[in-house]
Amino acid sequence: MRLSKSLPFRNLAGKPIRTAILILLTALLSLTVFGGTLMITSLKTGLHSLEDRLGADIMVVPYEATTKANLENIVLQGNTGYFYMDTARLEKIQSREGIGQISAQFYLASANSGCCTIPVQIIGYDPDTDFTISPWIKKSYRNTLQKYDIVVGNDLNAFVGDTLKFYGVECHVAAKLDKTGTSFDTTVFTNADTIKALIQSSLDLHLNTFQNIDPDKVVSCVLINADEEHTPEEIVNDINLHVKKVKAIQTKEMISGVSDSLAGVSNVISILIIAVWLLGIMILLLAFTMSVNERKKEFAVLRVLGASRKKLAGIVMQEACITAFSGSTGGICIGLLIMIPFNNLIEEQLHLPFLLPDVSQLIVYIISAVILSVLTGMISASVSAFRISRIDTGLILRGDN
Amino acid sequence: MKKTGLILDIILFMLSTALCFGTKFVFHACAPKEDGGWMVCHWAEQAVFGLGLVLFFLSSVMFAFKDGKTKSGMILAMEAIAALAAILPNHLINLCMMTDMRCHSVMKPAVLILGILIMIVGVIAIIIHRKENDV
Questions:
Q1: Do A390 and A295 fall within a single domain?
Q2: Which residues are bridge partners to A103 per DSSP?
Q3: Whole-number Å distance between alpha carbons of B50 and A201
Q4: Which of A315, A317, A296 lies closest to A307 in space, CA to CA?
């Protein structure tokens, strides 16, 4: 029998307002659980992505970077900025004990990015020693970057083969990175030779706030991984004590603020999901009870016509199943329409790393949300279904209910 | 059936109004530069506004017609315009450099969603109006 001709479907179609309210309720339930779960997962994925991208135990920067420039905003929030220290300090740091891996990075902010007023952060790395950016870039670009080759973050509206001009220097986009959900998505990466040429060009154009520097004799920060015999804490203390005018920071400490904010947001969303869910279950329970109560005579007539108790309960359960399925599908569609196209806006508003899960994980969440919503609808209806299967037909038809 | 058709026409009118004036006043592109000049996304906004005006006009005029076939023809035109509006930001006219800028994070998804909704509601409306004619 076609669904549209079945009795539960006709019952629902016969009472469009009641059906619409039930569908709206289940849509709200599935939207809350699906949207909330997707939000929490995206925030957690974003944090893991940020941890992976930082990729080093320790970051050493010039002391002024922690006072004048807001270092955490540059590294974590995607604000642009730059600072430099002599390569002599890099050599001093290299000579300290306990250093497993060490590599220097060079920062520069573009004056503008061709079309827009917003400057872009440019990070240069040394391909010979780098251990943080190269493994990540290799996923998108296997060749070695040549001079004036750049790799752009996923949120930059530039594609392989494009040419971007920074401080009058034309750079060729060699690759576009996968999305990370972090500030690195709006960053341009290049090798040390290219960034030194860009720094020189910015100095020549008097667009660099540092006027008396030699690009070949400065670095912006030093990234370090501790060897197996030393802990990052020991190395941080050692550098801060023995190397002047620098500040060593554990990257773990830098992202602790982000982790705390993320935990706060996740807790609020979890509480909201539970509250809406409990409220939804109660309202659904009430709605099904009221709906069945006002239709007692209708069910009594069906019973007189020969419908079994099981059949009556089945009708109520099928009605609940149809409304819950329609509502949950609608709720999930709304959730997808909000979360996917507006994910950049959500990331911007939360100021937290935000990375949507991949398609396979998304499908799992969709299926789970539908199953959970349908089960909730059916559990809420089961009480009414049980009661209707126990009705005393005689009493109800006489009007003594 | 006539009532359903009218409801769908009203929804189409509301969506077209939202696309037209929303693009200009609510989910508009990036603000002008400090020197008063416009970024490239402004021209995408202007183009979507122009298409939105046509959608607004067609969806308003539709109420003056009673014939289902005429309405279906007008909705068919709206379908093509809505599809064009949906793909215009960043596909036909470039938006700004960074996708976390307002034109990418607000205008583009809003126009895309409204365009798709107009197309979906339009298809349903065409089916309903054709059935009206059969009756």
A1: yes
A2: A223
A3: 42
A4: A315
Per CB-CB distance under 8 Å, the chain B contacts of A335 are: none
Q: Are residues A40 and A75 in the same domain?
A: no
Last residue of a domain, one of A199, A232, A251: A251
The verdict on A158 touching B (C-beta cutoff 8 Å) is yes
Tell me the C-alpha distance between B42 and A344, whole Å. 19
CA-nearest residue to A340 within chain B is B109
* B131 C-beta neighbours (distance < 10 Å), count: 13
Q: Which domain holds residue A344?
A: 3-49+258-398
Whole-angstrom CA distances from B65 to A16, A138, A359, B70, B132 are 28, 61, 45, 7, 13
Per-residue pLDDT of chain A (401 residues; tens, 9 = 90+): 566 678 888 888 888 888 888 899 889 888 988 999 899 999 888 888 887 777 788 989 888 877 765 666 676 666 677 888 888 888 999 888 889 999 999 988 887 655 455 678 899 988 888 888 888 888 778 888 888 999 998 888 888 998 888 888 899 999 888 888 877 888 899 999 999 999 998 888 888 778 778 888 899 889 999 988 889 999 999 999 988 888 898 888 877 777 888 888 888 888 988 898 888 888 888 888 888 888 888 888 888 888 888 888 888 898 889 999 999 999 999 999 999 999 888 888 888 888 898 899 999 999 999 998 899 888 888 888 888 877 777 777 776 55
Distance CA A220, CA A108 (A): 9
Same structural domain, A178 and A75: yes
Inspect the interface and report whether the beta carbons of B100 and A158 lie closer than 8 Å. Answer: no
Q: A–B: how many Cβ contacts below 8 A?
A: 66
Of A232, A251, A270, the domain-final residue = A251
Q: What 3-state class would DSSP assign to A348? A: helix
What does the alpha-carbon distance between residue A192 and residue A213 come to, in Å, rounded to a whole number? Answer: 16
Long-range contacts of range A200-206, CB-CB < 8 Å, 24 or more positions apart? A201/A166, A201/A167, A201/A168, A201/A169, A202/A108, A202/A111, A202/A167, A205/A167, A205/A168
Q: How many domains does chain A have?
A: 2
Q: Are residues A246 and A265 in the same domain?
A: no
Distance CA A338, CA B121 (A): 18
Mark whether A25 and A171 lie in a shared domain: no
Answer yes or no: do A67 and A44 share one domain. Answer: no
User: How many CB atoms lie under 10 A from the CB of residue A124?
Assistant: 27
Return the residue matching tokens 């780098």.
A130
Same domain, A45 and A63: no
| Token pair of B56 as six digits | 């607004």
Predicted interface score ipTM higher than 0.90: no
Q: CB distance from A118 to chain B under 8 Å? A: yes
Residues A290 and A383 in one domain: yes
Measured between CB atoms, does A146 come within 8 Å of chain B? no
